[in-house]
Each structure stands twice: as structure tokens, then as C-alpha cells.
User: Fold these one by one.
Assistant:
Number 1:
Amino acid sequence: MPHCVAIIFLAALLSGCASTARARFGVINGIDIVETRHIPYTVGTHYGFRVDYHDAGKSLTLREEFHSPASAHWRSSSPSPQRMSQTRDGRTMTREVQLGSHTPAPPEIHSLYVEDIQIAHGDPRGQYTVTLWLDGKPFKEFEYILE
């Protein structure tokens, strides 16, 4: 009996892990991320985050909130339909992106979303923060420095 309970618990744990989203931040390399919190200040450098998740057949809302030390020029290569807003002083940019589809993916297939930002001429150096929410719940926060 304890053996059966352990197997059921392990199966539930693994299925829960398969549906849990995960995020990484750093320099963009194709669709992969070289994790770092120190971004070299070179105009055109690609950096951002990648969210890995399982598409369970329902839309997820990913909300991104970027805080910069001064007004920045946001250039995103993200192809997803999105809503963006920026504060008057240009120090906070918020974006919402819909992830997922209406058709569940098989359990062995995982989806990903990459937010690819490029450093633009005149972007301020210094400390930045990006906070992520999934379906209105706090998900992940990254602090980084444009050096």
C-alpha cells in the first residue's frame, strides 16, 4: 500500500512540474539564454528572458513590468500580440502578452516565450528590474545592470 501511494504521489509531482512555468534571464542567443545579471552596454545587444511552460489549451496572461533608471528606448523582437504602456517619465514600461492556445499540447511538448530586447543608442546605464506575473499572480523578478 505505501508503495502505491508513493507512485501516485510521484506521478502527481511530475505532472505538476510539467505544467509549472519557469523563467530565465540574460543575454539572448537565438532562443536560448546565457544567464547573467550583467548586460554589456553595446548598442544592439540582445537580452531579455525566456519563459518555458506547458500549453494546456488555455490562454495565460504574462504581464511584464520593466523599471529603468531613466527613460529608455524599448525595442522588442517579440512577435506576440501585446498591449504596452509606459509612464510619463519613461521609467516604467508594462506589457501584457497572451500565451497558450486553444488546443492542448501533448504532455511531452513544451512551449516557450522569449522576450528579446535590444539596447538602443541613448538607453541609460544602471540598475533595472523586470517583474513578471502569470494570470495576475507574482511569478518572477529579475534585477540586472546595463554596464
Number 2:
Amino acid sequence: MGSSANIFDQLLTDLCDVLAKATYGTGADDVYGQPAQNYKTQLTAWPCRVTTMTGGREFMVGKEFTKNTFKVFMRLPEETDSGVPFQMNPHNWLYITTANGVPLPKPYYLNITAVNDPSLLGHHLECIAEEVIP
């Protein structure tokens, strides 16, 4: 029988890119008149598991948007390509590209609102993330 780490890793059937907001772009604004934003990819095709949280949907009738909340499980590398320790935080974004091994027709950008290390031992991270649908 394999170790629990191997079982956990087998459950990471989704892939995501981890992005950080780099700068505000110059030139054209977005459709809302806000400066365009640029992102820097910190991790590519990183194994994760995306789950929809129960009760994670909010609707605003007056503003007409929906907010879906997800919990994303993942392991993180100890350091980036430059040798600097990687720090996942609410300033990062997740770009979910594959679900259960199947490429998504429309990748999801998820805004991370919380990052938890439930065991406090660095076994894995649980990220609470939101997708706002206008």
C-alpha cells in the first residue's frame, strides 16, 4: 500500500497556472474604463484539485453578477526557478486550464482570497478562490 502522500497526489487531477499581478498596462483601458492589468506567470501546469464549495454562490439582483467560490488543493515547490522561496498569497491568481485531465473550453481565472496550510506542516495548501461572472 502506498503512502498517504502518493494518494493525495493522485487526487490532484486538475492543472492551473499561478499568476501574480505584475503591473498595470499602458495604453487602452478595459471595457469598464480601468487600466488593463498584466500578469506574470509564476508556475505553469501545476497539479491541483478544484472543488466547488457548498453554499459558495452569491447572487446580486441589482448589480447582476454571480460569484462562485472554490477551494483549490495543491502542493507547492520549495523554491522558484530563481531559487527564491515561493510564497502563495491572496495577491496571486489561479488560471485553471484542465479539469480531470480534460482541457477546459474556457479557462477560469480565480482570485485567491485566502491561503491555508491546515496541518501547519507544509503538506499541502488549501486556497479559497472566487470567480466573478459579470
